[in-house]
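Dear support,

I submitted the protein below through the web form. The confirmation email said the job was done, but the results page showed an empty box. After a refresh the structure appeared. I'm attaching both so you can tell me whether what I see now is the final result or a partial one.
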Amino acid sequence: MGILLYNSLTGKKEPLQTLEPGKVRFYACGPTVYHFFHLGNARMFVVFDTIRRYLEYRGYEVRFVQNFTDIDDRIIQRAQELGISPRELAEENIRYYFEDAGKLFIRPATVHPRVTECVDEIIRFIQDLIDRGHAYERNGSVYFDTSSFPEYGKLSHQSPEDMRAGYRIEVQDEKDDPTDFALWKAAKPGEEWWPSPWGPGRPGWHIECSVMNYLYLGEQIDIHAGGRDLIFPHHENEIAQSEAHSGKTFARYWLHNGTLNINGEKMSKSTGNFIMARDLLERRDPRAVRFFLLSAHYRNPLNYTEEALDQAEQALSRIDRLIRDLDHRAEALKAMRGALDRADEVPSTRGRSDVEQIRSAFIQAMDDDFNTADGMAAIFDGVRVVNTRLEEGGVTLGDLRLYRDLFVELLGVLGIPKKEEERLEDEIERLIAERAEARKRRDFARADEIRDQLRHRGIVLEDTPYGTRWSYES
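What the results page shows now:
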């Protein structure tokens, strides 16, 4: 059947059918760079990075665009508070974005356009909407006329009447209708501005994404993604202005990730109930943070607690331990046997079957609307299968390599790299070697003494038929 996506526009799962065979035009809303991004933002960035990775894993060529909103009311306000220019603030926080995103193993987009780089194109786009009867100018600002687009409300499944009921009518509001929205904002004193046919000003928020899509992906795209909080008004307004401009369907599929709560409560800066991703990454394992952010289906809410992150670390350590065990056994097997029989390097029929079934279960889960929770469950089922095989014995060197490569592969699809090899200090390496010699001499008192000494330093030893394994105490 192939990949199924839940389309927020239609409210149902649909098979992925791209505009161009084998290619995906994918746009995800990026950050407004007035500060570091918080953990809720991190979930969105990780989720759509993972979906991009999975599409590529399934053989698609993905052109992935993620914007930076680098001029905005919040940027202007914070820049004034800090006594710097909005451009300086934006540039600084874009640099911080790449630092923090890199720690979460989020790959850079194919293109990262910025609003301030696209102002000329935005002005032309707005003028086209005016010329086609979809927008009007008032006192140097330009507004989209929602009454000119009969399908307005189709993404959020609201009628214009319902929307109007939720708007507070401002005294001397210059818009023709409360649901109309700004495409261009007339400049206020002290703000950065650009010249336009309507006077000095700057772009509205919604228009930027329509224009960046148009510039870097074309009039029509396959997937548009963002947080659920962006459905209305941001994505609703994008549809209206884009389709009014082109006369074509803007995006085939709309994907929206669920909210992230902190200790059971909605994230809120006003109450202090929020976590900056940067702060969390300074004290917790980034691999485990990413693992946690993918531990629920992307459309479902996710609740952060320290205990939940502890559980993510423990779960990930099970996979790490197996990969290390497979590497260790492969090295020990080669050392024990010397020149290996070529047949031993070939995976067994059972090993090939195990890998095929584990990979198939993972793909089946991920094909069903990118269900990372079930994809992880398939990986852990595989961990149990392989551990059973190791206990039963009869595993060839080829099997060990095949199993190991499979888990590295599947973690890689989720954007979680293999844990870097841990290096022991020379003194600890010497103690492990000394203990091995003591055991050969049957000096078990000295061997136990060294084991206890290492344990006090957080090093746990495990004696196996394939030699002594070590790990840091969890």
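Response: this is the final, complete result; the empty box was a page-load delay. The first strand starts at residue 4 and ends at 7.
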